[in-house]
Amino acid sequence: MFTALPGGLAAAGSTRIKDPRPLPQVGEFFRFVDPTTETVVVRLSNPATTTLLPAPSNRFVSSKRRFMIFSSDRTGRRTPFQLDLRTGRLRQLAQTADLVPHSLCMDEKERFLYLIDRGALKETALTNLKTRTLADEVSAFSANTPSLGFIVVRQGRLQQLGTGGLTLADNVSSSLGPLMRPGGKGCLFARDLSPDEREFWYVEFTGAASKPSLLAKGRVWNPLWSPDGRALLFLRDVQASVPISELHEVVPDTGVEQRLAPTSQFAAFAPNANASVFVGASRSKAQPNIVLLLRAVKREFTLCEHRASHPALVSPVFSPDSRRVYFQSDHEGRSAVYSVNVELLIEPTQTNSS
Prior knowledge:
Number of helices: 0
Strand content: 35-45%
CATH architecture: 7 Propeller
Oligomer: single chain
Largest sheet: 5 strands, antiparallel
Structural class: mainly beta
Order of helices and strands: EEEEEEEEEEEEEEEEEEEEEEEEEEEEE
Distance between the termini: 30 Å
CATH superfamily: YVTN repeat-like/Quinoprotein amine dehydrogenase
Helix content: under 10%
């Protein structure tokens, strides 16, 4: 089957191993075989404590060195940790009082970690772990383009720090974004209509307040920019006897929305570095799986089970080089982080370090 698939899937064979050799003890890593696909899965954190990944739109897996950032309550409260993916070594990065777990995000050069702690936007240097407060009363932020500073949500207003607190929009939700567009041209933000419906808006950076434009509305969620910044990718529920989730995109420059592919009930998804393949978490109760979706032929391949109690929180993502998939699940107790090697299935992508 793999040799017949074009584009993003490599024709090297399958990763299925029925009886893998046990790995040497590395930190909390635990290797097992998925019962559905016989794919080898590695659990990276102990489910005796709660481990949570940052938002899929944030930079939390290093493209230069093999480490990732997540939060854990192993100290008694949620704090940020750095996990060495070679040795399994954990390093606590900061002391926090009320950390927002999904806020953890590295800068482009992977020198600083940004986070929200008790309403304050903070910066921690990854070299010496010195922490400073950048702004107060922040409920969400985006920091993808350092030259433009930070885009933050404060008391329902979208503001640009470093410009005297220029307000870009009002009535802004802090649960989905903001998401700065790659290249720094503008920013996505959301407005909630109901618990299940919302609007996606886009505002350009012009040096002065500009009028936001509506990109999509309805039962839409999980917005992510395409890696090149051309389009906004998101999931949309299509009403039928059983709601079906479809993968859509909308181009801000034209306002045109189109369907990219139907999905097997994706509750969450993320693209690889060139958006040729998507990884999704299905909300199907009969098949609670992690799924690869090949964009060119709109074909899916089941990677492994996630069996999470809340599929929307599985947060599957690719590593920057597309060689691995990371996700979280609470099916063994508390939320833990898992890894699956997909380099025999997906063509690796270039990273900044390579």
